[in-house]
Amino acid sequence: MKIGIIGSAHVAQTVGGKLVQMGHDVVLGTRDPSKLDNKKGGGGTLRDWLGAHPSGRVATNAEAAAHGDLLINATNGDGAINALTLAGAQNLAGKVLIDISNPLDFSKGMPPTLFVKDSDSLGELIQRTFPDAKVVKTWNTMTADVMINPALVHHGDHTIFVCGNDEGAKSAVSDLLKTLGWHDILDLGDLTAARGTEMLLPIWIRLWGTLRTGNFQFKIVR
Amino acid sequence: MKIGIIGSAHVAQTVGGKLVQMGHDVVLGTRDPSKLDNKKGGGGTLRDWLGAHPSGRVATNAEAAAHGDLLINATNGDGAINALTLAGAQNLAGKVLIDISNPLDFSKGMPPTLFVKDSDSLGELIQRTFPDAKVVKTWNTMTADVMINPALVHHGDHTIFVCGNDEGAKSAVSDLLKTLGWHDILDLGDLTAARGTEMLLPIWIRLWGTLRTGNFQFKIVR
After folding, report:
1. Which residues have a Cβ under 8 Å from the Cβ of A128 and sit 6 or more positions away?
2. How many angstroms away from the CA of B112 is the closest CA of chain A?
3. What is the dihedral of CA B48, B51, B52, B58, to 10 degrees?
């Protein structure tokens, strides 16, 4: 599948790298593709990423978005709207847009707070800003390594949430998740459910501190 | 153990009833103990509760608080500070106070929003208002039936969170939880972790709607 990823830091590199390995035609979008040797927040350099994934490509966010039949927003939350604006509304229109970002505000130090919450969410904000995209919120409640390898935590016996306003888009995303080994894919309904999944971040961050690892997961036992 | 419960609605009745059955000396606190025949929000009448639990008692919030060596705040979140004020700061001082309440605001309809969140929590607000109580936040991330009977959901294979500023108080609460069949009791540290557990409520409510039952639970798989 032709996949365009908006963002080029740790989450984008991890998810993009796995999708390249799986044979997808992946373009990673970044603000300035000439800066291949700069380390990207939490990730390595894009030159290293290209070296490890020779069939992957790096381009502008607009080129990545134009390339993809399926798009992934893997930016930091506070840069999401700006990066997607650079990607271009016309390049998002009609396409499935997986939104991994979380509305984390680190401006007052750790732990971060949420800059949108409760009666709104970043997923909904992205959907309102780009009404012709088919936003599916998922992957935002775990560390990047677990996103692409659920078996990393207790044989994959845990839950991933999806929500969005377009049933076909959610179905396409669930199919992609299954190819990565996800079994318990829990559809929470329309995109207003992103309020709940984004509001998992404070306890996620607390658990990360308590357990001293990001390799844990929520399971909805029922 | 002498246990005083602040609150007399569904959660208070369910938890209090179970503790009576287990042989504890339980007093349920209510605003006006003479109104035994009024149904209590989400629960039955206190006359029915007394009939089912003859060794339990109903009294004022102040009497319940004075009675208990261990106290439980089982009020609705928006009534918590008021009910605990009626219970009397002097009756809370030096005692373990389990706080089950959640800061749910139903004033704008369903789903509720949270009236405190993110950089503060209801648990912390209660602790600040009653600094001599030893607040332990727990039980607030599940339905009342599961609080007292974890085996109701998949043989009890799921997680309960505790947090609070007093290690001895958390230890006492964990011991009580174990007698109810809780195995995976996860200590998240000081009371600021209540921000995270209270912010689970939006996804809890969404899951309740999606799964059409309250008999589910979070498990932290690690």
Report:
1. none
2. 9
3. 80
- pLDDT for residue A41: 81
Alpha carbons A210 and B185: distance in angstroms, whole number? 13
C-alpha to C-alpha distance for A163 and A123, rounded to whole angstroms: 9
Q: From CA A81, how far away is CA A146, in angstroms rounded?
A: 25
User: 0.95 cut: is pTM over it?
Assistant: yes
* Integer Cα distance of B187 and A105 in angstroms: 25
Which residue, B162, B153, B167, is CA-closest to B186? B162
pLDDT digit string (tens) for B24-65? 999 999 999 999 999 988 889 999 999 999 999 999 999 999
Sheet holding A2-6, edge to edge: A57-60, A25-30, A2-6, A70-73, A96-99, A134-138, A159-164, A184-187
Q: How many CB atoms lie within 10 A of CB B219?
A: 22
- Find the CB nearest B203 among A113, A153, A196: A196
pLDDT computed for residue A42 by the predictor: 84
B112 confidence band (pLDDT: 50, 70, 90): very high
B68-104 pLDDT, tens per residue?
999 999 999 999 999 999 999 999 999 999 999 999 9
- Could you tell me whether strands A217-221 and B217-221 are parallel, antiparallel, or unpaired per DSSP bridges? antiparallel
CB-based contact (8 Å) between A209 and chain B? yes
Question: Which chain A residues are within 8 Å of B217, Cβ to Cβ?
Answer: 220-222
Tell me which residue in A119, A161, A216 faces B220 most closely, judged by beta carbons: A216
